[in-house]
Amino acid sequence: MEKKSEFNGVVLQLLKEIEKENPKFKEFLIKKYKGLPCYPKLEEAVYNYGITHSKIFAVTTSNPGTSLLTEFLYEGKPQSFPLDRYFLNCKGGKAIKSRLITIEKKLPFIIEEYLKKKKKIVIGNLGSGPGRDIIDVLAKYYRNTDKIKAINIDRDKTSLDRGKRLAQIKGVAHLIEFVHANFLRYKPKEKFDIALLIGVLCPLNVPTCIKYLKRIKKLLKRGGCVIVSNTTRRMLEEDPFTCFLMKWGANWELVYKDEKDLKYIFEKAGYKWKEHFYEPYRFHIMGVGCTK
User: Fold this and answer.
1) From the CB of residue 149, how many other CB atoms can be counted at a distance below 10 Å?
2) pLDDT digits (tens, 9 = 90+) for 190-231
3) Strand duo 220-231 + 284-291: pairing
4) How many Å apart are CA 100 and CA 42, to the nearest integer?
5) What distances in angstroms separate CA 151 from CA 91, 129, 130, 148, 225, one per listed residue?
6) What residues form DSSP beta bridges with 178?
7) Residue 192: which of 111, 131, 255 has the closest Cα?
8) Cα(40)–Cα(162) distance, integer angstroms
9) Which of 182, 179, 176 is nearest to 136 (CA)?
10) Contacts of 260 (CB under 8 A, 6+ apart)
11) CATH hierarchy code of domain 96-239+253-291
12) What is the structure's pLDDT at 4?
């Protein structure tokens, strides 16, 4: 990956603050980012320092796929350690919350399309984590309805337990079922009208994405739709340092995709491509496809 020669203001602030905490941490980050040789002893010392001081670093290194990272960014609470503050202030971090807000604005319109045709619909949130997007939408628009049933499916029981608490707090627990399972192996009692696949495809190559969507198609009713998200190359271009931190700290290397890529994935998986939309930073593209 080609590195930019200059750091943006948020990165410079991070390096300034990190230098006060641990000069070797700053030295290592710059060298590693620029692709310069780093002694294994120094890297291990910095790695351990990150784990013991940074909440977000500790979480992502222990479990790169955990929803605690996105929840951390959604909450946006002030943090004491420079690296944690950085993730809240960088474009990549802000774009995650922007993605949530954008999906929560778009989803009610899609729900209403289906409610015009059916008395009741089923929504599946695949790899949901706590399922904050579904919880927020139901709490805001459908708290008192009996026309919607949502199912949050995730392998992380801790995330699901958190989702149950959030659903109770927001008064929509009666509308949501929480299932502890791998959604790729899930066999629904009732197929979905709408499925969400948010933040799942980002690290996957195109052939694997096609396999995922083919499997999900079996979970959908005829004419049902799936909404997926993926990071775009714009994130790499505008926030390369955050991409570097994600790769080094969590071994999470993204596979950037654009509209053309998503359309190809949907069509190869046997869907009819419907539309796409972005969050305001345009770091994330959301694609919508329907079963034929």
Assistant:
1) 17
2) 999 999 999 999 999 999 999 999 999 999 999 999 999 999
3) antiparallel
4) 37
5) 31, 11, 11, 10, 15
6) 152
7) 111
8) 38
9) 176
10) none
11) 3.40.50.150
12) 44
| C-alpha R_g of the chain | 20
Q: Which residues pair with 291 in a beta bridge?
A: 271
CA distances 220 to 145, 184, 270, Å, are: 22, 13, 12
Tokens encoding 243: 């991409």
| Alpha-carbon span 29 to 286, nearest angstrom | 32
Check whether 67 has a pLDDT greater than 80.
no
Q: Which residue has the tokens 């969507």?
A: 213
State the distance between the two ends of the chain, measured CA to CA, in whole angstroms: 39
Check residue 129 and report its DSSP letter: T
243: part of which helix (H) or strand (E)?
A: helix 240-250
Backbone dihedral region of 256: left (phi > 0), alpha (psi from -120 to 50 degrees) or beta?
Answer: beta
Tokens describing residue 93: 């971090």
- The structure tokens listed for 5 are 């020669």
Secondary structure E strands in 170-270: 176-180, 192-197, 220-231
Residue 210 in tokens:
């096609």
In the chain, what are the domain boundaries?
9-93, 96-239+253-291
Yes or no: say if 4 and 240 are a contact pair by the CB < 8 Å rule: yes
Query: How big is the chain, counted in residues?
Result: 292
Q: How confident is the model at residue 76 (pLDDT cuts 50, 70, 90)?
A: confident
pLDDT higher than threshold 90 for residue 66: no
